[in-house]
Amino acid sequence: MDWKSALRDLRTHLPPGRGGGQGGVQRGSLRWLEQEMARRGGNPAALRNIIYRDTGTPADKAILTAILTDLSREAGRALDLPARPGPATLPDELELLGRTKKRIYKQFLAGVTAGRAPRLVIWGKRGSGKTVLLGHLAQAVEAHGLTVTRLNLSGNVFQASGALQASGALQASGALQASGAPGHVAAGRSFAALAERQQVWARQRVPASGILLVRVTADLLFDDSPPRTPDGQAVTAAGWAANFLRLVPKQVAVLVALEDPAGWPEGAQPITEMHPPTPSEARTYLIQKLGVTRQAAQELLKETGRNLDRLTLLAGAGGSVTQLLADPEVRRLAASLKALLTLELSAPFPDVAVQQALGHDVAALPVHARAQLLGNAADGWTPNPTLHRTISAVPEEEVREATERLADLPEGPDLSVYRLTALAHLHEWAKLVRAVARRPDDARFLPALWPIIRREASPAEREALAREVVNHHAGRGEYDSPRARDALFSLLESDADPVRAWARVKLAESSLDAGNFSASEQQLAHPDVQAILRLDYGADRWSLAAQSDALLLQAALARWKGDMEAATLAVQDSRTAPSGPRVHLWRGLIAKDAGRWPEAIQNLQAVPSSSPLLSARARYQEGDLRLRLGQPQSALAALLDAAARLEEAGGTREELARILARAATAQRRLGRPEGALELSGRVMQLVPPSDRRQDRVLRARLLSEQIPILLALGRTDAALSMAARALALLEHPDAREAEAQYRQRRTHYRVALTYLTRGVGVPYLQPLSGPERDTPDLVQARELLDHLLTRPPDASDREQVLTFDMRLSRALAEPAPDVALEHAARALDMTDHPYAEAQARAIRADALLRAGQVDAATTEINRAYSLLRRVQVGLPGTHEADPALQAQLLALEARAGLTEGHATLQWLRGALHEEPLHPFRHGVWREVGRALEGQGEPGRELVQALHPTLENLPLRLRDALPLLEVPQE
């Protein structure tokens, strides 16, 4: 009975209840058998060929027989199959591809395992399977615990032996190639001397025992000399191999594989010819190994021919370094990938980079060479494990050619890293300096190259590149990076005064970044720096750069002190021009802190997108400014754009976290606290817990900034827990003490906000109104705020903003309207732009309404509306106002106009129709409901006239009105 009939018989007689399989696959079906074949270590792709064609490896047939035997027991049937094959003793490549290879394999292996020392010589043209046979014999012999020496006599063996030894590929390949360079052999130019040199080299490679496998190609050379007999006569590669064979001790088993038998001496060891696989053998092999159809196998065969080496590589059976290096296309691919790996870059590699290293499209590689790559053109390419082992054995001169091609890659953000690193490994320092000058943001790729730059570049070029390394890390705030500090101190050791001055300015920047202002000022006062600041414009480029950076540093120091006049003077100095886009960024920062909003926006928008890192920071500052000035939608767009630019520029995770945290605040201000909380979760993943103190301050800041988001969701307990975690991190900051103290004050303020939120009993989302009666939570909020407000605010802009926010919150936490009006008035005195004034007047209007002064409250509301219109046109490029503040004013206006009854409620319905106000509708109607509750029964009758169903709702008006007026989604 054949396989197919036996399987049909078993399926028919399987007992009831045993027909189901895992995942719904029918037990005994072809799919079930494929799964079972795979589970037992067989090739599932071979199943159908065995059943329908009776073709397959003995191992796969044995596994299928075992499966069917188990099924036959269940069915209670005797299994009648074709004769069961014995254990697989031959590799598939030999079992399926020719009797001669099988005979040689068995003969040699039987001899060595029996303790004999057989000597066999084979020959065959390229692709006939010699390398495959040698590889499988090596594996089989080693599996028996015997020592194998493999010798590859191909090309210029003197050069190859030295290259292989230098690369360490001898051990990695698992083959003892040529160990030791030929330099140990006495040099000479006579034929006899050349022959003696070859003989010495050969004797050094003959093992005293074990097994020797030798591959000999027709292009064998020794430097520029052909192979020679001991008497100096030139011979063919085969003739030299015959002489070499005489040097091998009789106890050593030897198999010699020749590419060309020409010149093999008569009477020497007999030679067995190897033939490429027949078309039928090759096709069957591909069907079995790849599980493809006969037609697909025929198409692959057209590409590979009957070359057994290529067939095995295509089928993924090639595991020999020697075999891969012997193939020209695979060798070129290995050289190209080694060029990429030498650059210390990680796979997968972009398709365009691999193409450039190869010199042609990846798709143009023969199919057997492409089989050595994992991945695809879209996601990039990675060498498979066998090719990866081979890469280290490729000679450096071949790798250099690929590296030179990589150095000609076009400029672009995704390719610059390959081009710049190739230039460095080629020691093209001048080109590297010019390339970074053209694309300053590409300096982010230099830190990885700093060790080779420091070791190999000339002094002038090393200093130019060191400056870019320092600038890169400084721009990311990574002043403590080992490579940044090494590059900086190499500049401080320079013989040139301007170079040392520039480095000292950067040292001062690092002190400022760490919050050590006095150390920064001391570095800035150093004679080297002061001398540079006194120079005219005719100075060299180092002096000009040092001048510009020193002035920007002076501006930064003045900004942190709150001296905006001095900061403006420094940043507007014409000598800052060499800093390029950095000048626009700093001028925008200073103008922003000084309250010159249009000027700030103009400078921030002047930072070009060709500098992704700087433009990302400019967009962040623009977003922060628009958020402060009451334009949260434009702010959110700018912040998300900043995050995208920063990621493109390779910015730090910490900086990205700060930007996204601010974007989360913008989402909260737009009435989307759920989205804000989700974004905050991503922020915290970017900055995981760390023992480094600087990271503790940043993490504390990010935790603290989540508190208002949690309060907007009404989660006061979670907010208090978050505050406790942030304050614990700030307890012992060690570094950046001034920053840590500010973050402590801001977190204490947010704790007060938490008690305020719990005290008023509504989420911290506008509209908000002050309380009618006191609670313990409100008492706690006021105590915290009063304590914080006892300290006079610093002159810095952020301290002024914090104090303003605390005054507004203090007014909201106060049940007594007259006291609330006091705090609102003090906040009003601090306002410096329309949005802040509108906020203060809204809080003042709330206090007046609570005091019963409706006319005065209406006046404040109208002023706030006027200010809000000024917000819409107060900055370039936008006509948007803050929907949260609009909602606050609508609620206040409705509360003030409740005497008009239905008209006010109808007006409010229309006013809340605008989409940006939708997230705030619930709160507006809640506040109107609270106000109507104060009118008693008339207020309830007013609502019931509009909503008769209110009669059936046992709810307070503050709860009922939002349900009745806001559509439920």
UniProtKB/TrEMBL annotation:
It comes from the Bacteria. Residues 17-26 have a biased composition (Gly residues). InterPro entries: P-loop_NTPase (IPR027417), TPR-like_helical_dom_sf (IPR011990). Residues 1-12 have a biased composition (Basic and acidic residues). Residues 1-26 are annotated as: Disordered. This is Tetratricopeptide repeat protein.
